[in-house]
Amino acid sequence: MFKKILIANRGEIALRVIRTCKEMGVQTVAVYSTADKDSLHVKFADEAVCIGPPSSTDSYLKMPNILAAAEITNADAIHPGYGFLSENATFSEMCRDHGVKFIGASPEMINGMGDKANAKDTMKKAGVPVVPGSDGLLKSAEEGMKLSKDIGYPVMIKATAGGGGKGMRLIWGDDEFEDAWDSARTEAKASFGNDGMYLEKFVEEPRHIEIQIAGDQYGKVSHLSERDCSIQRRHQKLVEEAPSPFVDEDLRTRMGEAAIAAGMAIKYEGVGTVEFLVDKHRDFFFMEMNTRIQVEHPVTEEVINHDLVKEQIKIAAGIPISGKNYLPQKHSIECRINAEDPFNNFRPSPGRIDVLHKPGGHGVRVDSHIYAGYTIPPYYDSMIAKLIVSAQTREEAIVKMERALSEFVIEGVKTTIPLHLKLMRNEKFIQGDFTTKFMDDFDINA
Prior knowledge:
eight-stranded antiparallel β-sheet; 14 helices; alpha+beta; 3 domains; D-amino Acid Aminotransferase, Chain A, domain 1; single chain; Rossmann fold; Dna Ligase, domain 1
């Protein structure tokens, strides 16, 4: 087992990793920007190293600074959390070259799954269902229009290096194609430095359902059931739950087998997620694979009673997994609490938290780095907490979430708590009648 782990991240995920490390008897090193000097992850770690000014580019994304921090503290492993450098093949390779274990995917795995077109081709060869579309990148708008006629509109064009909804366009006919093609490529180039585009058939009435997997260096891969992440706004997840209200036993089995095949195809080591789009007929299609721990991992932990961060660290240390597939024993829901004003187009709301009261009670969990008197910096993602509840049934979990949200008091900044309260009281959500388009018609003021 590792003696000391440096956490190359901030906020709630850094604190989450620190807590598991303490339970495992592993020393921890926090890194922080000058804007985060008062963050809880800095206070809770055994050691802390400042790695730069507030800008992520000059701190949390500054690979030489992070590796220097690992060297001066004698850390023998680096946990990247999610976001930032968690799926950066160059950083993974630099860690390997410097003799520091990267608690995440290898450069080869990251490159293989990070390029969407390449990942789709790998999945097709592994027998994993994929959405009909282009074989690799499109050479021109004309090629895209010809293919669209063959597979049938509507179609989506997507940036091969994309994420967060950037470089994506929905196209319903030839007359829209060229304008969508030009704007998507321009956006992709500006966002990712890569304007490569591929095309897929648009799945109507889709749900976003993902399978958690774990794989070790000995060739074993297991699945840990599914999460439903369909409640999204502009491709950003708001609410996640496990199990999905849409998934039956047959679909869970088929998706689990496909996710294992995906992991086996790339000899996956670590904790990762295979994401699928599922249509109204319960046909599912590979979307992408995330080679890291995810924001929504707590709902899986709650329904299978298993610490995924601990599993991730053990795999990186060479400890084999059991190979057992896990099925959900309870129901869990996670609401992402952001410092944003949901009544004002989700405008970010950084600033000082004057009053804070976190909810409690049986089956209520809050993953957060905030406290009364803490100032939310304006430089990073606006998520400040994750509220997770678990209960025996989905109905009980919704009621518990509503109760917990009503207890969650954050004063001094605007938050998305009112939005989540509205969601928990929405009849369609309560009935499980939703797709990824649910938020398009949701009116928080209604």
